[in-house]
UniProtKB/TrEMBL annotation, chain A:
GO terms for molecular function: ATP binding. Signal peptide: none annotated. This is ABC transporter ATP-binding protein. The lineage of its organism: Bacteria, Bacillati, Actinomycetota, Actinomycetes, Micromonosporales. Keywords: ATP-binding, Cell membrane, Membrane, Nucleotide-binding, Translocase, Transport. It comes from Micromonospora thermarum.
Automatic annotation (TrEMBL), chain B:
It is a multi-pass membrane protein. The chain crosses the membrane at residues 12-29, 77-101, 113-139, 145-168, 189-214, 245-266. It comes from Micromonospora thermarum. This is Carbohydrate ABC transporter permease. PANTHER family: ABC TRANSPORTER PERMEASE PROTEIN (PTHR32243:SF52), MALTOSE TRANSPORT SYSTEM PERMEASE-RELATED (PTHR32243). InterPro entries: BP-dep_ABC_trans_perm, MetI-like, MetI-like_sf. Belongs to the binding-protein-dependent transport system permease family. It is found in: Cell membrane.
From TrEMBL, chain C:
This is Sugar ABC transporter permease. It comes from Micromonospora thermarum. Its main location: membrane. Keywords: Cell membrane, Membrane, Transmembrane, Transmembrane helix, Transport. It comes from the Bacteria. It is found in: Cell membrane.
Length: 362, 280, 298, 533
């Protein structure tokens, strides 16, 4: 019952939209595809849905060729980032649409639509047109329609991206169980948000420039990002990556000693590495490394401070709202036990969760 | 809004309204005159300057001195309606295809095909009329309604395509995709998901079709003999060396009445706000 | 939706083939007949080589008509655009009896050109029409509407403007009504006056509609012949002949089908080239970004 | 129901269907039904009054004969359709419609009439004829197109030629209807150009005295075009008839796509038709060299350009209708063209009824002799038999008998008597019986007016120095070219000489295009009429 993609490639006007994408999507599991905008996530979903052809590669479902199956026979439901509904139909009819096409009996349709609307909390709006609803409500209609028919493949293309932050979190919470409760369905959910990917996904696929660069359970991807690129993509704010040297038990950036070598990196030979450190793992301190504030973002309960340390940029996440002015010089302190080490090509060498002497494998 | 500006604005509007209404008013006045009312020079006030008569109006409804307009009216209506429906159907289909799919036949791409459609409007009717005559003669369709419908479709189809391509481009393609994901074939997606949302576009296209179909004189005139007469022909039949201006005016007013209703209808759509997105 | 290429012809072909079927024969016929001496006395498809085309090159009346068309079509369409846009702005919002004005301003477009031209002929009649009569009441000498080249052109242009300004009005009004509100809010917040708002916000936003409206009107206006036929019959002399009317004279009235065929094709080629250039120039003048192919690929 | 009955009951509808299909397909040919009882008694009174108040209440008697109301009403054409093309309403178009309606009423036929503006008539008739399309059974058109139409026309059958009404048609108009010895057109109208003047001005003592004082000449109906110009200029722009509006000297048909060519030929006739020169006016019939740019024509065009100053506002773009309204409405004091303006002036409700007179077209004091290339100083008159309306039956007509019956009914004595008195109908005298002053006096015309009218018309018949239309194939092209030249000169775009040189060049081209032999052969017929040979 799997959906298997092998070496899917698509190039348009010289740009790789998909490049040798190989992945196996399992029934009953929720796959989150995380990647930046234009990483190829939507293209991948459109190929899976049959809305987009590929240049090469294969796609099989239950072991049979799926590429030649037309869209309308793929048993696939999709929710778009834009709130796409049928403008001419009422909420009820919108949700009933796929059931009618599938030839479901009338009573059955009514029952399932009502149940579905109840689940998304739109029962009282069933007679309205989509244009008379708020953005969040419109997207609930789209979700209800996607869920109502129990499709074998459920594709969700950044469904909450166009909603405001609060609503996004709320819906994400609400639907977490819904998405993972799709029985034998293959559920694929794309997002640009690390938290969303980690929180929802049974399996996380990281996409970058048309390739899948890492696949694994959320915890594993989070703890052991295969490359610096993955490390950046799956963290928000992106993981701070800086080049430094290990020498004499100390880590130095240029000529500046930044910290001692922590235990999990102790057995690494001296040399140049790329180090990764998440934003919360840097603290502002009364004493420490002197850096200059280049930018300050305040987001609700947190403050993100962008710092420049001898030409390398860092983002620091601190709790609470702080009044920090641009150009201030502040002291910062790294938490060495949270350091990731990558080699010069960007591949992971050590992560905080791996003990000394256990090299990272892929 | 300052008072000065308001005065200025309403003055402009009134001046143009007067210019628009003038010819109609003159036609109305003239339609109630007779030879004596016309000959002496321009007269404006009925009963005062001339004695109003109903001759003009009687002449177009079966009076012996005129040309009957009722049958031509029906002919025009049937031809316009049928040709518009065919053009809208074919035009909407083609426009949808051109809006949603990429065509490539040699060096010919979508924009070239659209240009081909629209370019039919550049063709002066004179170019087409002689060959159309032989074409319809070959098909034995001269002087028949089907013959005129075919020719009128050639005139209207480009308009329908032009309006509808733009309109469909404005409908998110995700809607058709979703319909297909929901189990519709491509044609089903078009019929069930796109067409019901295209009423404003179809309205505009239908309006243009109606205007150009109803007002065609050239082709109807040359491809018919005696059986089928359209309304413009009936009016032009009064354009003799001694034009009976009163009858001509009455026929002209009668002939344009249905399309004036069309103007009211189009304005309603404009005001409801359903059209604006269509014509861009 | 390239995954569906097998289905796409189903949409395009019925319309395309219908048009091709209707158009191809006339076009081939015209091309062929333009190399023949077909005329009223010898309606035969003989072959006279390029003789007709040589004659076209020397036909000063035809070329004069083409030049005149530049004035007639270009001038009237420009005026129609200015008035149509102006009227649309006037009744766009904040106006009493808005719907009445709108209907009124649309009506002329709905009328049959040959019929209205006959009405206008009565109106401009030099001794029996109301225009000269009213001018006389104002103490102005009668204008020779149909017997002097200048007034005849003016009369013709008046009728064209009357008939087709509504078309511009409709497109421009619809364009205005579909404009987003935000730029206007922004302009209002910036404290921009009406004049500045128009030039900085309204006009640029309306540029694409303007270009397409002008082009469509130019295409239609270039065929000008019905109105000429009824109103002035091309006179006085040949002072108001448009190419469309001249083609009609040669092709249908005199039934020189072969020669008219070559005139038609020459004219068609001229028009396609001219309109293409004009379209490009307009797009540049209005600073409209070049539209990419309509069928976008995702 | 047994099987036999069943078969029978099925067979009936099938047979009905078969008959219907056969009827629709038209392959069954015209069926000649036996005569039905006449609806009219011999000599019944005929009036158009019941068709509306636009028609005179005059009553005339049905004249017995094969075309009378009585005879035609015996025919049963029910179930048959007659297709007719005619000129726009009202000129000839309205009588076509009216008589079609009457024909339907009395024969049961269905008559479809299409009315077409003048500029379109030629191609509208000729295109289907050439394409072999049976579009029209009966056609009304200007008689000068005979050269183009003749190959497609049915000669008038003997029984109609022998009808008394046809026997009474004047020699000239029967000649106009004849092509290669066969009468192929059915005469329904007789047209010519003549001069129309306002007697209340030109025969008025006061005005005569003023004119004499100013010019030293007698005021009279102008005998030459020079005199016409003089009189026209003298009275132009003044209110001389006391109606409060200015009068103008002359109204002429000057519109290019109307009938300016006829007006021009009227003006040119006395300059170009030399009584002693034979062999063609428009062409030298032996060489087919165009003569249109010879000095006679050029002088006529110079005259016409000069005359512009005497025309009313818009006079340089007058169609026939304008001319009719201008003279008939009392604005212009003189005019020359067909009868219509005169009849309009003589309508019962006209302000200037019986204040007008007909006279022969002005002549000239000298005429160009193209043999000697000199102007000969002789007083010359040359009536112009410009085209009139005619009718004909197409070879493709489904029921030729019905078509001819319609035409003979159209032109029966009773109908013609009524039609002649309705100016807008455009039906003018063409039978000897019409040249009787008594007929016109019976319409309320004064004796003087009626006598002058009849004398003018019959005088033209008697003249031996006449100009006929260029009745050759392609005539429309020749006339269109001439109209262009005249219009260009009138609009000041070219000098008369330049304009006519260009016309001559085009005429040569047209002749080559149509075929010199064909044109020449046809033109010989015209020249034979002109040369009285």
């Amino acid at each position: 019952m799997t959906l298997d993609a092998t070496d899917l490639s698509l190039t348009v006007d010289g740009v790789d939209h998909l490049k040798d994408v190989t992945a196996s999507f399992q029934p009953g599991r929720l796959h989150t595809v995380i990647g930046r905008t234009l990483a190829g996530k939507s293209t991948l979903l459109r190929v899976l849905a049959g809305l987009q052809r590929v240049d090469s590669g294969s796609l099989t479902r239950h072991g049979a060729d799926f590429l030649t199956t037309p869209v309308w026979r793929r048993d696939t439901a999709m929710v778009y980032q834009q709130f796409i509904n049928y403008p001419h139909l009422t909420v009820f009819d919108n949700v009933a649409f796929p059931l009618k096409r599938a030839g479901v009996a009338r009573d059955e349709i009514r029952r399932r639509v009502q149940e579905s609307l109840a689940r998304v909390g739109l029962t009282e709006f069933r007679r309205r047109r989509p244009s008379q609803l708020s953005g969040g409500q419109q997207q609930r209609v789209a979700l209800a329609r996607a869920l109502v028919r129990g499709a074998g493949i459920l594709l969700l293309d950044e469904p909450f991206a166009n909603l405001d932050y609060k609503l996004r979190e709320q819906l994400r919470e609400e639907f977490k169980t819904l998405f993972s409760d799709q029985g034998d369905a293959v559920v694929i959910y794309t997002t640009t948000e690390p938290a969303e990917a980690m929180m929802l996904g049974d399996v996380v696929l990281v996409m970058h420039e048309g390739r899948i660069i890492q696949t694994g359970p959320p915890g594993e991807v989070y703890d052991r990002p295969a490359t610096t690129t993955v490390a950046r993509i799956i963290n928000d704010p992106p993981m701070n990556i800086f080049t430094g040297r290990i020498a004499g038990g100390r880590i130095a950036v240029d000529d500046l000693q930044v910290t001692r070598v922590p235990a999990h990196l102790a057995d690494l030979p001296d040399g140049t590495y790329q180090f990764g450190l998440r934003a919360p793992d840097i603290a502002l301190a009364s004493a420490g490394l002197q850096a200059e504030v280049t930018f300050v973002e305040i987001s609700g309960s947190e403050t993100f401070v962008h710092l420049a340390l001898s030409g390398t940029g860092f983002v620091v996440q601190i709790d609470g709202v702080h009044d920090i002015a641009l150009g201030d010089r502040v002291s910062m302190r790294l938490r060495p036990e949270r350091l990731f080490a990558f080699d010069h090509s960007g591949a992971l060498v050590r992560s905080p969760s791996s003990g000394p002497g256990s090299p990272e494998g892929r | 809004m300052s008072r000065l500006y308001a005065t200025f604005k309403y003055t402009l509007i009134s001046v143009w309204a007067g210019f628009v209404v003038g010819p109609f008013m003159w036609a109305v006045l003239t339609s109630f005159k007779d030879a004596n009312g016309v000959q002496g020079g321009a007269t404006y006030l009925p009963w005062v300057q001339y004695e109003p008569t109903l001759t003009g109006w009687q002449n177009i409804f079966g009076g012996a001195g005129g040309v009957d307009v009722v049958r031509p009216f029906l002919n025009s209506a049937v031809i316009t309606l049928v040709a518009s429906i065919i053009s809208l159907a074919l035009g909407a289909l083609a426009a949808y295809g051109l809006s949603r799919y990429r065509f490539k036949i040699g060096f010919i791409a979508n924009s070239d095909i659209i240009f081909f459609f629209v370019s039919q409007r550049i063709m002066p009717p004179v170019v087409l009329v002689v060959p159309f005559f032989f074409l319809l003669q070959w098909a034995n369709l001269l002087d028949t309604i089907p013959g005129l419908v075919i020719v009128t479709v050639a005139l209207l189809l480009p308009i329908a395509v032009w309006v509808m391509v733009d309109f469909f481009n404005g409908i998110p393609r995700q809607i058709d995709e979703m319909a297909m994901l929901d189990g519709c074939g491509p044609f089903g997606a078009f019929v069930r998901a796109i067409l019901p949302n295209s009423v404003p576009g179809l309205t505009v296209a239908a309006m243009f079709c109606a205007v150009f179909g109803w007002n065609d004189f050239f082709f109807a005139f040359r491809l018919t003999f005696t059986e089928i007469q359209t309304l413009p022909q009936a009016v032009v039949a009064l354009n003799s060396s001694i034009p009976p201006w009163w009858t001509l005016s009455a026929a002209a007013l009668f002939g344009m009445s249905p399309l004036i209703l069309l103007a009211v209808w189009v304005e309603r759509y404009l005001s409801k706000g359903s059209l604006p997105g269509v014509i861009r | 939706m390239d995954g569906l290429r097998r289905h796409k012809s189903m949409f395009l072909l019925p319309g395309l083939l219908t048009l091709l079927l209707i158009i191809v024969f006339p076009l081939l016929f015209t091309i062929r007949v333009s190399f023949s001496g077909w005329n009223v006395s010898n309606p035969e498809m003989d072959f006279v080589g390029g003789a007709n085309y040589v004659k076209v090159l020397q036909d000063s009346r035809f070329w004069a008509a083409n030049l005149r068309l530049v004035l007639l079509a270009g001038g009237t369409v420009l005026i129609q655009y200015l008035i149509g846009f102006g009227l649309a702005l006037l009744v766009w919002r904040n106006v009493r009896a808005r719907r009445l004005w709108r209907v009124l301003f649309l009506v002329p477009m709905m009328t049959t050109p040959v019929v209205m031209a006959a009405v206008w002929q009565m109106i401009f009649h030099e001794s029996l029409g109301p225009v000269n009569d009213m001018l006389a009441k104002l103490g102005i000498a009668p204008v020779h509407w149909f017997t002097e080249a200048g007034p005849a052109l003016a009369a013709l242009m008046t009728v064209e403007i009357w008939q087709w300004t509504p078309f511009m009005f409709l497109l421009m009004l619809a364009g205005l009504l579909s404009l987003p509100k935000e730029p206007f809010l922004a302009a209002a917040i910036d404290g921009a006056g009406a004049w500045r708002t128009f030039w900085k916000v309204t006009f640029p936003l309306m540029a694409p509609v303007s270009v397409s409206a002008i082009i469509i009107r130019l295409i239609e206006a270039s065929k000008l012949s019905d109105t000429v036929y009824v109103l002035t019959s091309g006179g006085p002399g040949s002072a108001t002949e448009s190419p469309g009317y001249y083609l009609y004279l040669r092709g249908l009235k005199e039934q020189q089908t072969g020669y008219a065929g070559s005139l038609s094709l020459t004219y068609l080629v001229l028009m396609v080239i001219t309109l293409t250039i004009v379209a490009a120039l307009l797009a540049r003048a209005f600073k409209v970004p070049r539209q990419s192919s309509k069928a976008k690929e995702q | 129901m047994n099987r036999k009955q069943l078969t029978k009951s099925l067979a009936v509808p099938v047979a009905v269907l078969a008959i219907t299909v056969a009827g629709c397909s038209g392959s069954s040919g015209p069926e000649q039904k036996p005569d039905k009882p006449a609806l009219f008694k011999p000599g019944s009174e005929i009036s158009y009054a019941k068709y509306g108040k636009d028609y005179p209440t005059t009553k005339v008697k049905d004249v017995p004969g094969p075309c009378s109301y009585e005879s035609i009403s015996r025919k049963d054409y029910s179930g048959q359709t007659l297709k007719i093309i005619s000129h726009a309403v009202p000129v000839i178009g309205e009588p076509t419609q009216l008589h079609a309606r009457q024909f339907e009423e009395i024969t049961g036929a269905k008559v479809e009439v299409v009315n077409v503006p003048f500029g379109e008539l030629h191609q509208k008739i000729l295109t289907p004829l050439q394409a072999g399309q049976p579009a029209y059974d009966v056609m009304f058109y200007p008689s000068l197109w005979i050269g183009d139409m003749a190959p497609y026309l049915v000669p008038v059958p003997k029984e109609y030629l022998d009808a008394p009404g046809m026997k009474d048609v004047t020699k000239a108009y029967l000649g106009v209807a004849t092509w290669n010895g066969k009468v192929v057109q059915y005469p329904v109208d007789g047209d010519r150009h003549y001069l129309k003047i306002r007697t209340d001005v030109l025969a008025d003592r006061k005005h005569q005295a003023a004119y004499l004082a100013a010019t030293g000449k007698q005021l009279r109906a102008p005998q030459t075009w020079a005199e016409y110009q003089e009189i026209a200029s003298f009275f132009g722009g003044k209110d001389v008839d006391g109606d409060g509006k200015p009068n103008f000297g002359s109204a002429e048909v000057t519109k290019r796509d109307d009938l300016v060519f006829s007006a021009f030929i009227s003006r040119a006739a006395p300059y170009v038709k030399h009584p002693d020169v034979t062999g063609g006016v428009f062409f030298d019939v032996t060489t087919m060299q165009p003569l249109i740019n010879t000095p006679g024509f050029v002088r006529a065009l110079e005259d016409m350009v000069k005359a512009k100053s005497t025309w009313p506002a818009g006079g340089a773009n007058f169609g026939l209708g304008d001319e009719i309204f201008s003279f008939g409405g009392g604005q212009a004091l003189m005019s020359y063209s067909w009868d219509d303006a005169f009849i309009q002036a003589q309508q019962t409700d006209s302000r200037i009824r019986n204040r007008v007179a007909a006279a022969p077209l002005p002549g000239s004091a000298e005429v160009y002799n193209r043999n000697t290339r000199t102007w000969d100083k002789i007083q010359n008159q040359a009536p112009y038999f410009t085209w009139g309306w005619t009718s004909a039956v197409a070879k493709t007509a489904r029921n030729q008998k019905m078509a001819f019956d319609y035409l003979c009914f159209f032109s029966n004595e009773a109908n013609t008597a009524l039609d002649l008195t309705i100016g807008r109908f455009g039906v003018n005298p063409y039978r000897n019986a019409h040249f009787d002053p008594g007929f016109w006096q019976a319409q309320g015309w004064s004796k003087d007016v009626a006598t002058a009218y009849v004398n003018t018309l019959s005088g033209m018949e008697k003249s031996t120095n006449r100009v006929f239309d260029l009745r050759v194939p392609g005539v429309n092209e020749y006339m269109s070219s001439l109209a262009n030249g005249v219009a260009a000169a009138l609009a000041g775009q070219q000098t008369p000489q330049q304009a006519l040189d260009a016309v001559a060049k085009e005429w040569t081209e047209i002749t080559d295009r149509v075929g010199k032999d064909r044109v020449q052969e046809a033109y010989r017929n015209v020249v034979a009429l002109e040369d009285n040979s």
